[in-house]
Design a protein that fits this description.
about 400 residues, alpha/beta, eight-stranded mixed sheet, globular
Amino acid sequence: MKLKNKILICGGGIAGPACAHWLQKYGYSIVIVEKASGLRDGGQNVDIKGAGQYVLHKMGLAEDVEAKNTRERGVKFQDTSGRVFATFPRGAFAGLTEDVEILRGDLAHILHSSVKDVCEYRFGTYVTALLDTAEGMVASFNTGEEEVFDVVIAADGLGSSTRAMVLAEETSFRYLGAHMAFFDIPRRSGDDGWAMSSLGGGMAVFLRPGKSGHTTVLTTFLAEETLHRGTPAEQRSALAEALTGRGALADRVRSELASVSDFYFGPMSQVNVARWWKGRAVLLGDAGYCPTPFTGKGTALALVGAYLLAGEIKRSATLIQAFANYEQLLRPYVEASQNQLSARSIRMMHPSSPGGAWITRQALKVLASRPVQFLFRPTPDKRKKAIAEDFVFPDYT
């Protein structure tokens, strides 16, 4: 498809630059606006699964990503006293550590580096209004400027303000009955490259290798949906209360809360949009179909979605056809990823009673046992086959 104006991408995280990579390759001019003043370093660990790995290879970025691999050795589960009762090495059956583990900030830097010289980046900039006209989509920016674009791609995350301008009525959120918080704490001498986790009291705590001198924290706990609406101080207080009495790992996290600077706290919710496009605007990544971090599929969905959206814009005769094909191809994959979780399954993953915690520990011990791992641990050939079968890609060459 030929376009007379530029394509605007709102969001400079993962999905936006990934889509820009393909669009500029196909000959389109791209502007990427990012509300933040620059790229964030570090951030949470993201595991790139299945079809996401395939896209990285096609982008020629697999080696760059591997060079920034956190080298997480696997995950060890602790009881409340700090005793390890189950260990899942990297690549283990039912384990949490994938072949490709990278800090979100590192992946964002890699994607930025791949397009920064061929796309126009505008940091500290965001859209304040959109008007679809016969000449194109008129975007108004916080800088006071206006510009006309042929396509506007909303890739600005779970709380997308761009989505709210064009598809607010079509958007709903599926709350899964838990809240999450993630941030960094200082690394200690005992942090040896293994992720550590504890479960119980309606809470899950994960500590994972982070940037030099830091350990990343992800905590999730059962809670009312309204809990995230307080002030930052109230949110920290709510998290501190949830961590109290939840064991040695939780005590360590709680002791560091006061000095945490980069703190995220919010509901564990999925984004459900009746359709992903309207006029010249289209949704991409978490803005359109966030599955929540607990699925481990968000990054893969962003990468696959970016590849498909750019490819369909390239090969389609009209934007309507491009957007419809993109949604038709990707929506079943998105729904399968989102349906891995429900409020019920989240409750099961966060045992709140002593009996429930005991059952969870026994189940993890069985899964980590040598007989089970011997029978079910995927071989390299099986992993390659799983990647190939995860999603069947169109060829846009």
